[in-house]
Write a structure and sequence with these properties.
Protein name: Plasma membrane intrinsic protein
InterPro entries: Aquaporin-like, Aquaporin_transptr, MIP, MIP_CS
Structural class: mainly alpha
Number of helices: 13
Oligomer: single chain
Membrane topology: Multi-pass membrane protein
GO molecular function, one term: channel activity
Number of strands: 0
Subcellular location: Endomembrane system
């Protein structure tokens, strides 16, 4: 989701095929003295706060509406799993659309980590983003608890944990694959060559990213409640603060970070063959020097 700057070529430019991927500096120390970094981190904080408030409130509300003890005669079971999935995917679509031009619209430490591995963001910016994403998540879930404390505590606070009938290995695998789908979609939707060739790609980018979150939730809500976002899992665990979410918390960090790294490597160094191109360029330069 990180905003990528093209080299100025239009889709009919003859050298478009030679467009090189933009590589961020490793550290990015020079950004520390510039306002855009702090504006972007504030944006990530607010976006993650809004994301967690709406989605966790949806989870708690559905749990209440579908509780037969609370509504014994109700014919409606609430929004259902599909509604929860739509809440997560829809909020990502909205927030990426709103924030992509400012911060890149990460709203997820796993996405930030994947873009760091793919050299789309420098390390210092990535650290700032992750810290603000965590703080935003805690505040967003805190708002849910503040507005409906009894329901929040009664229905688990939207916290992620390994559900009954599934092993931790299964949950870890679900988090790895689910995050791979998300981060691979992010890289594909923001690919430099596609953006240069097709002018509609930057406009539509939030749609496939949000939709990937939706479909992953459909597949993994029964297993873990769906993490694929360490900030989402961490914020709920901090505010709910019960043993089970903390015991399983490592799954919602290790899985997403592994999935994000694999997606970044697959897209940047396999599909785009950045490593092979760099190696080939090095060999050709060495050959010319030797000759």
């Amino acid at each position: 989701m990180e905003e990528v700057r093209e080299a100025g070529q239009s889709s009919d430019h003859p050298s478009m095929a030679k467009l090189k991927p933009v590589r961020a500096p490793f550290l990015g120390v020079e950004e520390l003295s510039k306002w855009p970094l702090y504006r972007a981190t504030i944006t990530e904080f607010v976006a993650t706060l809004l994301f967690l408030y709406v989605t966790v409130a949806t989870v708690v509300g559905y749990s209440h509406q579908s509780d037969p003890n609370a509504f014994p005669d109700s014919q409606c079971g609430g929004v259902g799993v599909e509604g929860i999935a739509w809440a997560f995917g829809g909020m990502i679509f909205i927030l990426v659309y709103c924030t992509a031009g400012i911060s890149g619209g990460h709203i997820n430490p796993a996405v930030t980590f994947g873009l760091l591995v793919g050299r789309k963001v420098p390390l210092i910016r990535a650290i700032f983003y992750m810290v603000d994403q965590m703080l935003g998540a805690i505040c967003g879930v805190g708002l849910v608890k503040g507005f409906q404390k009894s329901l929040f505590n009664r229905y688990g606070g939207g916290a992620n944990f390994v559900h009954e009938g599934y092993s931790r290995g299964t949950a870890l695998g679900a988090e790895i694959v689910g995050t791979f789908v998300l981060v691979y979609t992010v890289f594909s939707a923001t690919d430099e060559k596609r953006r240069a060739r097709d002018s509609h790609v930057p406009i539509l980018a939030p749609l496939p990213i949000g939709f990937s979150v939706f479909v992953v939730h459909l597949a993994t809500i029964p297993i873990t409640g769906t993490g694929i976002n360490p900030a989402r899992s961490f914020g709920a665990a901090v505010i709910y603060n019960k043993d089970k979410p903390w015991d399983d918390q490592w799954i919602f960090w290790v899985g997403p970070f592994i999935g994000a790294a694999i997606a970044a490597i697959y897209h940047e160094y396999v599909l785009r063959a950045s490593a092979l191109k760099a190696l080939g360029s090095f060999k050709w330069s060495s050959f010319k020097t030797d000759s």
